[in-house]
Amino acid sequence: SVSAESMAPGQEDYVKTVIPKTEEQRQRIESSIANNFLFKHLDEEQYKDVVDAMVEKRVSKGEEIIRQGGIGDYFYVVETGSFNVYVSKNGAPPERVMDYGPGGSFGELALMYNAPRAATVVATSDSVLWALDRVTFRSILMENTSRKRRMYESFLEEVTLLVSLEPYERHKIADALESLYFEDDELVIKQGDIGNSFYLIESGEARVSKFDEDGTEFELPGLRKGDYFGELALLTNKPRAVNIRAKGRLKVATLNKKAFVRLLGPVVDILKRNSDNYENITRNVQQ
Ligand code: 1OR
């Protein structure tokens, strides 16, 4: 027989944690996780269970939240404040590899892989965190996160633009990606529009064209799997410079502007250098 408390399949041994909260605390949690990709796609009940289980943690400047090599107990979301991340490789002195601010989250790795903490995280100002226990994290947030990281892992490894990144930086990109499909000849980007997204081609091909001053449309070299587009308007804050259409069925992975800025910072010089070439390509085609 099925009791009223039984959980969905696969979650049978999970007892819900409920830490009482004021309405004001609930609202602070909501705004802290609103833009965090790990919390997207939760249904109403999962969302409530996560908020119920979170614990408020106030920390002082200089406090160590996580120590590399330690045991994973909690996953953390930043409400306010700032944090530095340090990694020590093979006993070398720790190096700063990353920082987090409001809306950021950390501490998922040890919980996902039952591994020691991969880094040390230290508050660089008085801060407020929301901590989620291991069991709730694994029961509700892990499935989606690891599925997405697995799904995009091999694809992202093949994208030339991203080869210089650390595996963990590609994980964070995977968290933020959303796949979209376009049918043959469908417009993905329209010249003159405002740019809000960055695109990577997962499969299929795209055609590129541009209207010149007298409104004649001319064709530019096309794009294939592993290529990217849509970065220029995000880098320059100018309107879309070209039209991009699906050539056959096209699958793209997209990042919104905020994620693009935050996650592709390490390759922004490569993006800029490559875009310097666009004028030459256009000139050659037009001749
Ligand atoms: P955790 O549970 O291992 C430390 O506890 C957390 O720091 C870790 O989960 C991540 O959430 C976070 N490599 C590993 N963990 C990192 C890194 C990182 N950055 C943040 N964390 N690297 C930095 C990549 C820019 C790779 C360094 C070689």
Automatic annotation (TrEMBL):
Keywords, comma-separated and alphabetical: cAMP, cAMP-binding, Endoplasmic reticulum, ER-Golgi transport, Membrane, Nucleotide-binding, Phosphoprotein, Protein transport, Receptor, Repeat, Transmembrane, Transmembrane helix, Transport
Superkingdom of origin organism: Eukaryota
Signal peptide range: none
Entry membrane topology: Multi-pass membrane protein
Example of a GO biological process term: protein retention in ER lumen
GO MF annotations, alphabetized: cAMP binding; cAMP-dependent protein kinase inhibitor activity; ER retention sequence binding; protein kinase A catalytic subunit binding
Record GO cellular component, one term: nucleus
Family (UniProt): Belongs to the ERD2 family. Belongs to the cAMP-dependent kinase regulatory chain family.
Protein name: cAMP-dependent protein kinase regulatory subunit
Organism: Ambispora gerdemannii
Classification of source organism: Eukaryota, Fungi, Fungi incertae sedis, Mucoromycota, Glomeromycotina
